[in-house]
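Here we describe the complex-level prediction in full. Unlike the single-chain runs in Section 2.1, the four entities below were treated as one system.
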Amino acid sequence: MGKLTVTRTERIHWGDCDPAGIIYYPRYFEIFDRCTTTMLEQALGMTKHQYLIAYDFTGHPVVDTRARFILPTRYGDDVVIESTIVALRRSSFEIQHHLSKNGNLSVEGSETRVWVRRQSANATSIKAHPIPDEVVARLGGR
Amino acid sequence: MGKLTVTRTERIHWGDCDPAGIIYYPRYFEIFDRCTTTMLEQALGMTKHQYLIAYDFTGHPVVDTRARFILPTRYGDDVVIESTIVALRRSSFEIQHHLSKNGNLSVEGSETRVWVRRQSANATSIKAHPIPDEVVARLGGR
Amino acid sequence: MGKLTVTRTERIHWGDCDPAGIIYYPRYFEIFDRCTTTMLEQALGMTKHQYLIAYDFTGHPVVDTRARFILPTRYGDDVVIESTIVALRRSSFEIQHHLSKNGNLSVEGSETRVWVRRQSANATSIKAHPIPDEVVARLGGR
Amino acid sequence: MGKLTVTRTERIHWGDCDPAGIIYYPRYFEIFDRCTTTMLEQALGMTKHQYLIAYDFTGHPVVDTRARFILPTRYGDDVVIESTIVALRRSSFEIQHHLSKNGNLSVEGSETRVWVRRQSANATSIKAHPIPDEVVARLGGR
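The structure predicted for the assembly as a whole is:
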């Protein structure tokens, strides 16, 4: 099957930028997190609030991430992020993000996320759980 | 010369955490950024506001970063971050961060930063610049 | 003249919410700041980056703000914010924000902002400056 | 009884500041939120994670807040915040924050918070609940 790719556009805001006038780099990871959520929301046809309930899980926390910052962005810039699932395993998946400004690749990011469930009511005791077959299918299959 | 290591303690706050009750992972990069600033402030004996003026440069933006999230942290946790300079080149340097909670390694991060100067009054046109010899010496030398 | 009103829609994201599952309230002020920027961008027909240069000023910092939080919002909610200029003085202006979710007023905010210029190259020495006549006219006049 | 006052010191960081070089004002509300948590933690002798469990409630969300920004702060500044409980009612309380830099009052903030409990497992259905007598006593009484 083909790889699932989702495109999202974001505006860089004044409050995302630092005294050098460019984006404060941790904000890129917030952008990537919104992109991954958008991908799952589009694939599953519901909001994150709904899909956490529907598939009875706690979330898909990042366990490994990397980013290369190639060109700076600043407030007022509209950027386009293309997010692609590049690996889909039993209880984890990998996403690549390409962020462009005016058609020029500005940031490359990648992340590995794990499908987790709370083991009990204790919020910090979470454990990897197999990704449901239906989700795997909607994300493009293994 | 020995490698420069700086230790910083941070409390994880309620507002740093997400609905899963654990830290929202982009916040770790804010923590790492504060650690790198602390390292430079301690090595140079002045605040960032002062050292940007003293060495006439715009900043030390990250061009590449990676992090592995091993154990979750949540609000109320006090974490210890050990930051070490692992490479010091002509106009860039590399730092590794080890974040522990109760003595257990929870996050490993690394980053490459470039010493940059604005080319003109235009805030987004920045260019790599050699790290001053005095700074290199204070950071432990090449 | 009629009062200028601008409407903006925002999605509340996972990373905007706290362990109680609802939005972390400082995020509302980030939303309001984006709304005020949007209002000025629409009225002046350029981005904030462009209008700071075009009118040669440093910004429009908030000097007084108040907000009432009536109904909680959470991730996945789409909210509508109506922002209205309610006062336009020599060097300051006042904006009211009404944020609704599903047609129900959820937050009411107000803010007073001052038009400021840097007195010199020193970033923290800023001073109120008369709002240019052209800007006053585009914002609906006094 | 005397009013409870708690003092906290914070450093303003690079990532808290905007392209004007001064703090991005929503960050002040994050500071105030940490101050209120610190006050409760000191009064109750436990972390927020612990006191939410010990007193079986969901949180103390802000329902009304106001702030006046008198003097700007920027990265590298160390500020002192004095937080005082000025009203303690059946299920709500009011706090005033005075933030100073080098002894000069820079920001004044006030907030009203409600003691709430989740009505069920549904995270957004929360309801005001009487503040426990023990908490009232530790906060200085009515």
